[in-house]
Amino acid sequence: MIDRFQYREDREAYSAARVKALEALLIKKGIITDKTVDTVLDFFETKMGPFNGAKIVARAWVDPSFKDRLVTDTPAAIAELNLPEGMAGAEGEHMRAVANSPDVHNLIICTLCSCYPWPVLGLPPYWYKDPTFRSRAAREPRAVLGEFGLPVPEAIEIKVWDSSAQIRWFVVPERPVGTEGMTEAELEALVTPEAMMGVAIAKAA
Amino acid sequence: MKLQHYLGGLEGLGPVSTETRVFVETWETRIFGIHTAMMALSSQLPLPPTPSKFTTVWTWADLRKGAESLNPFDYFKFRYYEKWLGGISGYFIDNGYITADELDALTEEYYSDPSKSVPAAGDAAIDNRVVQYLVEGDSPKRDTNVSFDFAVGDLVSIKNVPSIEHTRLPGFLRNKSGTVETVYDGAYVYLCDTGTDGVGAAMPVYCIRFEPEDLWPGNTEKNFSLYADLYSHYVEAPAAASAKQAA
């Protein structure tokens, strides 16, 4: 049996030690500082993340004209909102939103890598980066969505968007029924990263 | 030909992962942070110089080249951030920033004593630039005058360009036909010159709609469309494609 088909028994402990050694060497050599990695991680905790996307979607739900502008000129519509600076920053320089409707369900994929709209959604979850998902969603999206617990009837058209160039995509899911009396803040809580990439829909809590 | 360029449509893979976490091990956060810092400190960006000793170019293209050059078995075997750790460590070694020996030796030290901390050092200007990069980004859009050969609704053919190291043309779209859905405003560069593959310089980008039944005849699902954003170098008129076939 060749090593290619085996993992080290100490797989995670070894990687943890190796990445720490790499970070320590980069600090020692003056490439990054001892705060650089934490600075990046903090930015994704507080400035770029799915909390922004949830605000954008909730606004689209309460304001149909905003929703129209969002799918027509995504960056301009996002700039109307009071979100942290950087909404046209790294991996969000050119974004495009597509809206679900009773007739159309949208799914965002990246068959070549893992392109993802950082400012509004933060970092991609593991399912999105999984080579199996990236392979199968291109040819059999309904089967894949079924595995996510989202049956999409054949009468509903599925649009799969493959992010091969420099545009970053996200989905505006439909507003769940039974949420008519909810405030915008309450609506935000119903919007998940999965719904904003199309492997889920938003549900009334 | 690299399997990684041809993932779309691959069969026989089993169920998808539905893991919604971004990081499944704490160590993964560190390699993500290092990669993002490298992109921010990369020498081609028009950002203020810092005391960082990082003097070379590192972009997504470099990370992707590494992943695309892996043995396909390893590509499927290793988790996302395991591939990053291998690729990024290799880059620092290959470019002479660190040696493999010192990385191995220090790995052993942290392995034996996981509580040992990393050194405290560095100039805050480095971290300021990292934040500035995240906020400002690195727009690929250029105000270059380019000609748009296609309009919305046009039928187009996709070339089968010679991609050696890196490409932004998914394999399953090569030699296929589609319809232009969107002509994006302006021209877009790519992060590096992909050589005979043909992207890098500012050029139009089109969103093109494909019929899954054309892509995988008799072996796909009904009532769905596949769209892909493609650089114009990958796109040609159907007549040009037929002429090549006839020749």
TrEMBL record, chain A:
It catalyses: an aliphatic primary amide = an aliphatic nitrile + H2O. Its EC number is 4.2.1.84. It comes from the Bacteria. Keywords: Iron, Lyase, Metal-binding. It holds the Pfam family NHase_alpha. It is an enzyme of class 4 (lyase). Residues 15-200 form the Nitrile hydratase alpha/Thiocyanate hydrolase gamma domain. GO terms for molecular function: nitrile hydratase activity; transition metal ion binding. Fe(3+) binds at residues 110, 113-115. Belongs to the nitrile hydratase subunit alpha family. This is nitrile hydratase. It comes from Rhizobium leguminosarum bv. viciae. The gene is nthA.
UniProtKB/TrEMBL annotation, chain B:
Keywords: Lyase. Gene3D superfamilies: 2.30.30.50, Nitrile hydratase, beta subunit. GO terms for molecular function: nitrile hydratase activity. InterPro entries: CN_hydtase_beta-like_N (IPR049054), CN_hydtase_beta_C (IPR042262), CN_hydtase_beta_dom_C (IPR024690), Elect_transpt_acc-like_dom_sf (IPR008990), Nitrile_hydratase_bsu (IPR003168). Its EC number is 4.2.1.84. It catalyses: an aliphatic primary amide = an aliphatic nitrile + H2O. Signal peptide: none annotated. Residues 1-120 form the Nitrile hydratase beta subunit-like N-terminal domain. Residues 139-236 form the Nitrile hydratase beta subunit domain. NCBIfam families: nitrile_beta. Belongs to the nitrile hydratase subunit beta family. NHase catalyzes the hydration of various nitrile compounds to the corresponding amides. This is nitrile hydratase.
